[in-house]
TrEMBL record:
<dbReference type="Pfam" id="PF00156">
    <property type="entry name" value="Pribosyltran"/>
</dbReference>
<dbReference type="GO" id="GO:0045892">
    <property type="term" value="P:negative regulation of DNA-templated transcription"/>
</dbReference>
<feature type="domain" description="Phosphoribosyltransferase">
    <location>
        <begin position="111"/>
        <end position="237"/>
    </location>
</feature>
<keyword id="KW-0805">Transcription regulation</keyword>
<dbReference type="Pfam" id="PF09182">
    <property type="entry name" value="PuR_N"/>
</dbReference>
<comment type="similarity">
    <text>Belongs to the purine/pyrimidine phosphoribosyltransferase family. PurR subfamily.</text>
</comment>
<dbReference type="InterPro" id="IPR000836">
    <property type="entry name" value="PRTase_dom"/>
</dbReference>
<dbReference type="InterPro" id="IPR010078">
    <property type="entry name" value="PurR_Bsub"/>
</dbReference>
<dbReference type="GO" id="GO:0003677">
    <property type="term" value="F:DNA binding"/>
</dbReference>
<protein>
    <submittedName>
        <fullName>Purine operon repressor, PurR</fullName>
    </submittedName>
</protein>
<keyword id="KW-0238">DNA-binding</keyword>
<dbReference type="InterPro" id="IPR015265">
    <property type="entry name" value="PuR_N"/>
</dbReference>
<keyword id="KW-0804">Transcription</keyword>
<dbReference type="InterPro" id="IPR036388">
    <property type="entry name" value="WH-like_DNA-bd_sf"/>
</dbReference>
<feature type="domain" description="Bacterial purine repressor N-terminal">
    <location>
        <begin position="4"/>
        <end position="73"/>
    </location>
</feature>
<comment type="subunit">
    <text>Homodimer.</text>
</comment>
<dbReference type="InterPro" id="IPR050118">
    <property type="entry name" value="Pur/Pyrimidine_PRTase"/>
</dbReference>
Length: 278
């Protein structure tokens, strides 16, 4: 089958979007479309220009016999502010207020479109860092972890509170919960990680950072390094010293008034934290 250029461009774009952070040899496209490498290079130049104009991402070309092309998802500042602004607007709905000052976020964490945008937003920030896996605790943070992993094209590691028969041999540690100062346990199968990996830690909400600190300690048991910490919402009202200083957040919860049923949030440190590749 001889592909038309328009057909190649559509199929090539879909393949790149479905395989972010993956080096694809030009010979793969050349063989797939039965086209010369020069024609494939011209096609990729069109895709690259379109991606950059639309703010879809970057297309990196790696020269040499072992080279190829790699798609890097990118979110521009305008889109990032739109995502974060929409998130804050949704979270400030008084109907989300639960007893004890907690916020109901389950519906947002189950919205595939929103999660995909949030995942790409975090992935964009960490695009130029080495990230071998995403780690989270077996709670609502799982959906965020998978959303980020989708755009970084890395596996997700889920830490549990207790071991399962299907986990096989496990490693467990005790850590101090930052919010209530209770001793809790984290368990992870030995086969989950390999020594030397760089792991991005994530969760939906962070107050003092006890859970994040516990995951960092767990990484040490495996001989791995934290690649960063990404949280959806952080709390500004922290009475104790925060256990995690280097983190990235999209929104910051400033004030909750249960009597007046008001919720106040502002932007997190996504735009102010140094090192943002965008």
């Amino acid at each position: 089958m001889k592909w038309k250029r328009s057909e190649r461009l559509v199929d090539m774009t879909q393949h790149l979007l479905a395989n972010p952070h993956t080096l694809i040899p030009l010979t793969y496209f050349s063989s797939l479309y039965d086209a010369a490498k020069s024609s494939i290079s011209e096609d990729l130049a069109i895709v690259k220009e379109t991606f950059e104009e639309r703010g879809t991402g970057r297309l990196i070309t790696v020269p040499g016999a072992a080279g190829g092309v790699k798609y890097i998802p990118v979110v521009g500042e305008r889109e990032a502010r739109d995502i974060i602004g929409g998130l804050i607007h949704s979270l400030e709905d008084p109907d989300r207020l639960l007893p004890g000052g907690y916020l109901y976020m389950t519906d947002l964490l189950g919205d595939p479109h929103l999660l995909d945008r949030i995942g790409k937003l975090f992935a964009s920030w960490f695009a130029d860092r080495r990230v071998d896996a995403i780690m989270t605790v077996a709670t609502k943070g799982i959906s965020i972890a998978h959303a980020i992993a989708r755009h970084l094209n890395v596996p997700v590691i889920v830490v549990r509170r207790d071991s399962k028969v299907t986990d096989g041999p496990t490693v467990s540690i005790n850590y101090v919960s930052g919010s209530n100062r209770r001793i809790q346990t984290m368990v992870l199968p030995k086969r989950s990680m390999k020594s030397g990996q760089h792991v991005l830690l994530t969760d939906d909400f962070m107050k003092v950072g006890g859970t994040m600190n516990g995951m960092k300690n767990l990484l040490q048991e495996f001989g791995c390094e934290p690649a960063g910490v990404a949280v959806l919402v952080e709390s500004e009202d922290v009475q104790e010293e925060r256990l995690v200083e280097d983190y990235l957040s999209l929104a910051r919860l400033r004030k909750v008034n249960e009597k007046e049923r008001t919720i106040e949030l502002i932007e997190g440190n996504y735009f102010t934290k140094g090192g943002n590749p965008q």
